[in-house]
């Protein structure tokens, strides 16, 4: 997809950390959004909204527990991955598997907005900076979508045109253990 906004700048690396989680590591990614949790919840669960900012398309609404499929998209390449929604407690907690990874989204009301915390437990070690750079771009696109100034989804190799390499390097320095 071509992006209607050519001056899109996702900004510098933000608040993120990596914490031990049993035998794995969890990337903790925090963003403050101006919208209330109910609005952010829709963006995290509704297939039409996810398709405007997430790195994948979904086969069904993620707002209810159960199995589904996420499709990773990179240009013309499509890769389906099994997903199980483990918890869907609107509008506070959404947790699902993604292949061997686990994602937990926590939405906390902050003033009139939402503090959104993503806890992405990584099955593959050493991926934290790359995953953080990807989520950084997705969250910047999500913020613009929620603010009413969408830039269009940025997936796969398209991320390189929006500073993914610099973000990855910045998060690698920030997350060094």
UniProtKB/TrEMBL annotation:
Region of interest: Disordered: 1-20
Activator of Hsp90 ATPase homologue 1/2-like C-terminal domain residues: 36-146
InterPro entries reported for this sequence: ASHA1/2-like_C, START-like_dom_sf
Gene3D superfamilies per UniProt: 3.30.530.20
UniProt name for this protein: Uncharacterized protein YndB with AHSA1/START domain
Pfam families found in the cross-reference section: AHSA1
Family: Belongs to the AHA1 family.
């Amino acid at each position: 997809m071509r992006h209607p906004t050519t001056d899109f700048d996702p900004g510098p690396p933000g608040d993120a950390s990596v914490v031990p989680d049993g035998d794995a590591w969890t990337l903790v990614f925090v963003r403050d959004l101006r919208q209330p949790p109910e609005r952010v919840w829709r963006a995290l669960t509704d297939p039409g909204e996810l398709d405007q900012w997430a790195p994948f398309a979904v086969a069904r609404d993620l707002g209810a527990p159960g199995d589904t499929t996420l499709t990773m998209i990179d240009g013309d390449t499509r890769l389906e991955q099994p997903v199980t929604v483990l918890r869907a407690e609107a509008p506070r907690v959404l947790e699902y598997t993604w292949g061997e990874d686990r994602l937990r989204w926590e939405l906390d009301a902050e003033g009139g907005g939402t503090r959104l915390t993503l806890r992405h437990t990584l099955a593959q070690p050493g991926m934290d900076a790359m995953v953080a750079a990807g989520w950084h771009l997705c969250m910047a696109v999500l913020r613009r979508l929620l603010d009413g100034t969408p830039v269009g989804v940025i997936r796969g190799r398209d991320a390189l045109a929006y500073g993914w390499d610099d973000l990855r390097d910045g998060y690698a320095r920030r997350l060094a253990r």
